[in-house]
């Protein structure tokens, strides 16, 4: 479970993320949507502890960043990209990461993610989509209680997006709490139980997904109405 307690981040006078409260239960998938600069990465980075809050706190399964290693062991994080050592193979990279995390490299997981046949391929020769899969395998290797994913569908083809959807659903069913950011509104509606709409560093709305098509329509309406509003504000200011 993720608990956000009036957590916010400010750089100088400007709020990257205004203080917000929230709770994401075990087994729930939340997608973070919003335009460039809306605050998606800031919120994910507050959860993964790479930035510290200006106010408030985040707790993951009751642990806070002050719990150190135990906090970091509760979650798996998939960044949007990573500078892998290009001359290492997929198998070596995955095994190294698993050992660094203190677990055995689970080959069944590589198979589930479709990387089994690429174990002897150099990471430097992988496509963007293949690198995304490797990052996902790394995020899942410890079977974490919480999964934080930054733009997990970047570079994935539509078939893989569906498979990713199924995979995340299986993880949620085993009780994982999942948060992912995405620019793809249809992907948000497909993956998530709830979509958090961020705008200008504020949590501007939440869309519960009970029906994928209806949720997609609602997210689109929300997103484009707020974009139009932002453009109109911009025009008004120039007059
Ligand atoms: N290190 C920083 N110093 C100053 N401002 C920052 C810093 N990091 C982020 N910001 C600002 O915080 C706001 C939110 O940025 P954030 O990266 O969270 O947005 P985002 O929704 O992830 O955007 P994108 O979709 O472009 O990745 C932006 O206005 C950004 O300029």
Topology:
Layout (H helix, E strand, L loop, with lengths): L1 E10 L2 E11 L4 E5 L6 H9 L6 E6 L8 H5 L1 E4 L11 H11 L6 H6 L15 H13 L5 E5 L7 H16 L3 E5 L3 H7 L2 E6 L2 E7 L3 H27 L1
Parallel strand pairs: 3-7, 3-8, 5-6, 6-7
Antiparallel strand pairs: 1-2, 1-4, 8-9
Helix pairs in contact: 7-8
The structure holds adenosine-5'-triphosphate.
How does this structure look, described?
This protein has 239 residues and is of the alpha/beta class. It has helices at 40-48, 69-73, 90-100, 107-112, 128-140, 158-173, 185-191, 212-238, and strands at 2-11, 14-24, 29-33, 55-60, 75-78, 146-150, 177-181, 194-199, 202-208. It has 2 domains: 2-74 and 144-238, 3-Layer(aba) Sandwich (Rossmann fold), CATH 3.40.50.300; 81-143, no CATH class. Helix content is 39%, strand content 25%. The strands form 2 sheets. Strands 5-6-7-3-8-9 form a 6-stranded mixed β-sheet, with helices on both faces. It has a 3-stranded antiparallel β-sheet with strand order 2-1-4, covered by helices on one side. Helix 7 (185-191) runs antiparallel to helix 8 (212-238). Bound molecules: adenosine-5'-triphosphate (ATP). Adenosine-5'-triphosphate is lined by residues 11, 16, 34, 36-42, 201.
Strand content: 15-25%
CATH topology of the largest domain: Rossmann fold
Order of helices and strands: EEEHEHEHHHEHEHEEH
Give the distinct bound molecules. Answer: adenosine-5'-triphosphate
According to CATH, the homologous superfamily of the largest domain is P-loop containing nucleotide triphosphate hydrolases
- Gyration radius, rounded: 18 Å
Q: What gross morphology would you assign? A: globular
Which CATH architecture of the largest domain is right? 3-Layer(aba) Sandwich
Number of domains: 2
Strand tally is 9
* Amino- and carboxy-terminal Cα gap: 48 Å
Biggest sheet: strands side by side, in what order?
5-6-7-3-8-9
Helix content estimate: 25-40%
Which structural class matches the secondary elements?
A: alpha/beta
Give the low-confidence spans. Answer: 231-239
């Amino acid at each position: 479970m993720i608990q956000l307690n009036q957590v916010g981040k400010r750089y100088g006078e400007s709020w990257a993320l205004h203080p917000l409260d929230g709770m994401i239960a075990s087994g729930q998938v939340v997608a973070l949507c919003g335009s460039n600069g809306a605050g998606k990465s800031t919120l994910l980075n507050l959860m993964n502890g790479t930035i510290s809050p200006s106010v408030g706190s985040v707790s993951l399964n009751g642990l806070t960043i002050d719990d150190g290693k135990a906090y970091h062991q509760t979650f798996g994080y998939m960044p949007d990209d990573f500078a892998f050592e290009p001359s290492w193979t997929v198998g070596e990279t995955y095994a190294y990461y698993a050992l660094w995390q203190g677990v055995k490299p689970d080959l069944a997981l590589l198979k589930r993610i479709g990387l089994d046949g690429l174990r002897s391929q150099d990471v430097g020769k992988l496509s963007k989509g293949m690198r995304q899969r490797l990052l996902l395998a790394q995020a899942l290797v410890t079977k974490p209680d919480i999964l934080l994913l930054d733009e997990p569908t970047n570079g994935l083809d539509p078939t893989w997006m569906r498979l990713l959807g199924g995979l995340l659903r299986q993880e949620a069913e085993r009780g994982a709490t999942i948060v992912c950011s995405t620019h793809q509104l249809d992907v948000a509606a497909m993956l998530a139980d709830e979509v958090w709409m961020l705008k200008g560093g504020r949590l501007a709305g939440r869309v519960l997904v009970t029906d994928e098509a209806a949720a997609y329509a609602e997210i689109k309406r929300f997103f484009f109405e707020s974009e139009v509003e932002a453009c109109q504000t911009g025009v008004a200011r120039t007059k």
